[in-house]
Automatic annotation (TrEMBL):
Its EC number is 1.-.-.-. It is an enzyme of class 1 (oxidoreductase). Signal peptide: none annotated. GO terms for molecular function: monooxygenase activity. This is Quinol monooxygenase.
Amino acid sequence: MPVVIARVHPEPGRLQEVLDVYAEAVPLVHQEPGCELFALHTDQTSIFVVERWTTDEDLAVHSAGPTFARTRAKVAGLMRAPADVWVLDALPFGDPLKGIIQ
């Protein structure tokens, strides 16, 4: 189960505009095959996207799909830097309900 953590860097003063774009996309992503988690968080400067996909193939389909492409196009002029993206494998130490993103 791949987990993705992405940090999105909106231009100063453009955070809400980027959040509005993601607000449109999130319900569509939630319907994609293999999407187990797609959640947004913010520190009021950046947006953090936390994702979990059933398989690497599901993640690849999402990344090549129309919702991802449309979202990237809509936010392109609103970013101060490219997103930082990490695709991770879980290390299930300790309590299995607390040791991994579920």
